Amino acid sequence: MSAPAVDQREVLERYDADGYMIFRNVIDPELINEVNAHVEWLQARHPELRPEQLGHVLMQNDPFWVRLISDDRLLDIAQLFVGPDIALFASHYICKPAYSGQPVLWHQDGAFWPLEPMEVVTLWLAVDASTPENGCVRLVPGTHKHDVAGMRDNTDVESVLGKEIAVDVEEDKAVDVVLAPGDVEVHHPHIVHGSNANTSPHRRCGLTIRYIPTTTRIVSDELPWASAFLLRGEPGVNPYQPKPTYIPGEHLAFRGCEEWS
């Protein structure tokens, strides 16, 4: 299944102007139900982790996770921004539980990532409804045109990153990214964004997916990066993980898991 046809020129013009885009109804409810089951399965397997910290180090041997980020509907969107040769750099569930979900302080993704050049796009897949009440993503349009600023520690508040951007943010210009389950928000690695704590009675879960063109090099002592997978096209400059094999009883069962055996 492929993503709905869009005008690539119009998409890129809006992305260049604002630094983000929203695509509605990308992933069907049946797959979103499986994603919910995956989140619950991960939390049961990793009770030592907060639900906001279900990150890429867990996905190397997780066939459902790799199947999800390989979905053609997501890759078709990524291809609009990074071209036909696509790899995964990282992926991370930020699952904010009701009443106690931690905030994500203002930051630019590119401040954290070992990528040369910084050609990468984030797809943020809504697993739950994402609203101002439960701590949706907030971003400042146009800030992707700025350089990457430094980061500083912030221990005054418990947060997902423990850090914040070391410059003043014009919060009055921020917009709330309101999404329904299955919607996808796309943003630039330099855009200033964050999210508030979830003090509502409703969970807010989203999956970040960081796609790179295979001409972008992952520069890290941890290579091969645990979540580096070739997903489409030519391999380019990086080594990649082999796609994991599904083992009944060891992995989450999902539609089509037999094809991963």
Automatic annotation (TrEMBL):
Pfam family, one: PhyH
PANTHER family: ECTOINE DIOXYGENASE, PHYTANOYL-COA DIOXYGENASE DOMAIN CONTAINING 1
Alphabetical keyword list: Dioxygenase, Oxidoreductase
Record's protein name: Ectoine hydroxylase-related dioxygenase (Phytanoyl-CoA dioxygenase family)
Record flagged with keyword Oxidoreductase: yes
GO-annotated molecular function: 2-oxoglutarate-dependent dioxygenase activity; iron ion binding
